[in-house]
Amino acid sequence: MLIFFLALTGFEIHGSLNFFGFEQAVTFHNTAAIIFLVLIGLAIFWHFTTGEWRQYLPTRQHLRAQIEYYITGIFRNAPHPTKKTALTKLNPLQRLVYLALKILVIPVMVFSGLLYMFYRYPQSAGIQSLNIESLGSIAILHTAGAFVLISFIIAHVYLITTGHSPTSNLKAMITGYEVIEVEKTISSDNVIEATK
Prior knowledge:
Blueprint: H1 2-14, H2 22-50, H3 63-71, H4 92-117, H5 136-160, H6 168-175, H7 188-195
Helix pairs in contact: 1-2, 1-5, 4-5
């Protein structure tokens, strides 16, 4: 929701929409951006204190099968090529996409957004902030990053509906709890006991 709100207010600042009014959109966008920065900081802290950062280490194992599954297999009701476990919550494609978001897209958005926030316009000479020539290339970079994030969110919303039921993945995202199928292995003792 925060990314959607940032997109809404950002595109109004950009001049593509007219919803809150320019000044209000800037205020809302800056406030949401600060909340987003706090959220990023908490996520980084959580990832490193819990060791969950390992979930994002890329792997090529089953990567091609995962891509083929999303392109055609999902429409043929093919079995999922990877299984979730407590130690591997993300499939190989998710690992790559989330890693790219965390080390490329989000830093670009944060850096360009901070340049926007602290850019010193000629009429604000008394304010301590960045003094750079122009925001033209930064605006293009920030807007391109916004389109990447929106594309990610649209794909994410679609893929949410591809679980066991149309809402099961959404429920897991909101609650943090998901039922994972566990394959049971039968030990030789259980086989002997069952045959007695």
